[in-house]
Amino acid sequence: xxxxxxxxxxxxxxxxxxxxxxxxxxxxxxxxxxxxxxxxxxxxxxxxxxxxxxxxxxxxxxxxxxxxxxxxxxxxxxxxxxxxxxxxxxxxxxxxxxxxxxxxxxxxxxxxxxxxxxxxxxxxxxxxxxxxxxxxxxxxxxxxxxxxxxxxxxxxxxxxxxxxxxxxxxxxxxxxxxxxxxxxxxxxxxxxxxxxxxxxxxxxxxxxxxxxxxxxxxxxxxxxxxxxxxxxxxxxxxxxxxxxxxxxxxxxxxxxxxxxxxxxxxxxxxxxxxxxxxxxxxxxxxxxxxxxxxxxxxxxxxxxxxxxxxxxxxxxxxxxxxxxxxxxxxxxxxxxxxxxxxxxxxxxxxxxxxxxxxxxxxxxxxxxxxxxxxxxxxxxxxxxxxxxxxxxxxxxxxxxxxxxxxxxxxxxxxxxxxxxxxxxxxxxxxxxxxxxxxxxxxxxxxxxxxxxxxxxxxxxxxxxxxxxxxxxxxxxxxxxxxxxxxxxxxxxxxxxxxxxxxxxxxxxxxxxxxxxxxxxxxxxxxxxxxxxxx
Length: 534
Hints:
Keywords: ATP-binding, Cytoplasm, Glycerol metabolism, Kinase, Membrane, Mitochondrion, Mitochondrion outer membrane, Nucleotide-binding, Transferase. The chain has 534 residues and is of the alpha+beta class. The chain has helices spanning 2-10, 58-78, 121-129, 140-143, 152-162, 164-171, 180-188, 201-204, 219-225, 267-274, 334-342, 350-358, 397-423, 440-450, 462-472, 501-518; strands at 13-19, 23-30, 36-43, 55-56, 86-93, 98-102, 112-113, 175-179, 198-200, 210-211, 216-217, 234-236, 239-244, 260-266, 283-287, 291-298, 309-314, 323-330, 367-369, 387-389, 430-433, 454-457, 492-495.
């Protein structure tokens, strides 16, 4: 009887698929309390076939989603939770990562090219050189973005130019292009048997093919990149029923069949929603593989004068207005931890990094600029490369660990400064989320380097929460209210700055000096032989 009554108490549930760069999660929330009931996580392999190339296997991505759903359903059953209470599923994803598949076989035609990938640098240089005045912001008035290796259009162009299977599928009209959200929704709603080929405004706004004012694919932009519009997914709002789940009935997760997929947001937009940043001026910073600071600018797109992107924050319903954000994007945050672990072997697990850094409490003048994929905001400098400087005989791996954590904080400070300059209203505290926020030393360092308090919610899965909120609030589902008075109170922890601002400014000035040293490294110019002659 007790078990039965606890089942009844739960009310409607909403699930979220959170497909990130380094892992996939499936999470189930209580729609009334926003409480996380259960989840499962699977790591994703990244391959680096050549220097600067980053790929993931589309099949593995899809398989990881199925595995996370299956395991979470098993856990819910053990908790005596009725899976049929799940009323909707939201999708949130690593943005910009580019896939092309064959709609007749359902097979991907190449690995997914991950957002961090640099193979398109020569494509980008060629495109910038053909713009008037060699201006990387040539398309910004329509897209809100600079021409960069980061965005999907150049990756898609590379696939069409370099992969025969893709070029042929485009010619024979069998090709479908999509970011990770489109691939997952298409596969989960039936794939080659009636799968829905769609994306939402937030993911579309990261392709460079989307006009952020008209909120649709732009024929001129498609012509500029020479991409046929028929391969693009249909653009929908971030909160509406796209299609119904189709899953093999023999699986435990088979009972998710028939549930609507009704929320879709790029991961950084989802975190903004999950952090309840619905008011103009509210902002959040997410520490994942990269680091992303988004500030809600309301119903008007604001163009940055300081190297930030203008992006669609969300559009929570077919008839609802779009909301925009300014974004500072940093390519390497958590990825630096993975690099220290997998490439240098100075730590065995991510949690060791905090201990190692805390054992010295200083970088001892060592600065680490992890420009592995060039520099993103506010520089947009693809020719930069990683650099570690200020080394002495005294420097050891603990100092390097500390410098790696400081690098994440300094990069955030740079985008926060740009954000404050663009808006004219400085942020008085920073709301944070993402995997790295469990590192308490990092959070304290961040407060010290920004000279403002850092506020971390006690439920760290804000990205998945945002996708669940969008799915649960969709018309035809309506189990999650987004009215301000209905949003649940969020408990959080605050980190106050503990060093004096002078020391903080000194360290920041040194960081900026290190960044300059990292610039213009990987250039295509001929190299001088050291005595001034080419």
